[in-house]
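Backbones bend. To wit:
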Amino acid sequence: MFELTDKVAVITGGASGIGLASAHRFVRAGAKVVLADLSDGTAHADQLGGTYHRTDVSDEAQIASLIDHAMDVHGKVDIMVNNAGILGPGRGVLSDSLADIREVIDVNLFGVIHGTKYAAQVMQSGGSIVNTASMAGLIGFPGISAYGASKHAVVGYTKNTAIELGTKGIRVNCVCPTGVQTPMIAEAPDDHWAMVSQSLANQHVDRLASAEEVAAAIHFLASDDASMVNGHALEVDGGMHVGLSVQLVEAAIGQPIHDDDGVFE
């Protein structure tokens, strides 16, 4: 299941986190990978038997160069994972600077737009594009308005391009993770509004997701086993989307809502 034998996958943000976890899964499933990142991914690419191409996804010319590199090395692109992203400062809507907002939009949204455009130009029928969105692209979180706006846009762009590229036999989907234990999260301060709001909202499982858990969803969407899945925003959120957690409700009403046997009163 989910085999990717002889598929060629280009993964942005591929030197760490979700991108690197996806690369490992893809290679185990038989794919060849091209890792793109600003951080040096040469050692990871060598370990995986793939290649690394330094890429700033906000720069359209660098994405075009990335796809040219994949075509020069492998002669085709079957899978494009637009995964690179940044969180932004998280100071709040009244304090975020326009420069900060533009940086988040340039990476998180235009990186997806550039990657989709140039990968789709060379893909044959049966190609798959998977974008990394976020639960912040489906619901609101205080303090990360620019990030949320960029990820809402990724979800919308995914749906629109799925319609347009579907005529070429190319599927476009996205994953919407909860907070994920990645270097981006690890480097954020503990009092970052995104971290506080994510942890409060997602007490259904009371932990962050692992990069491998999100990579599993990306692997499925990239594979031919998902051949009838197109334009979908797949929530990888531990149940965040279903509503308030028991802990939040109990905190709000100041008492437990179930007895010792776990039966709701």
In short: The chain is about 45% helix and 15% strand. Strands lie at 8-12, 32-37, 51-54, 79-82, 128-132, 171-177, 180-181, 209-210, 233-236. The longest strand covers residues 171-177. The mean pLDDT is 88.
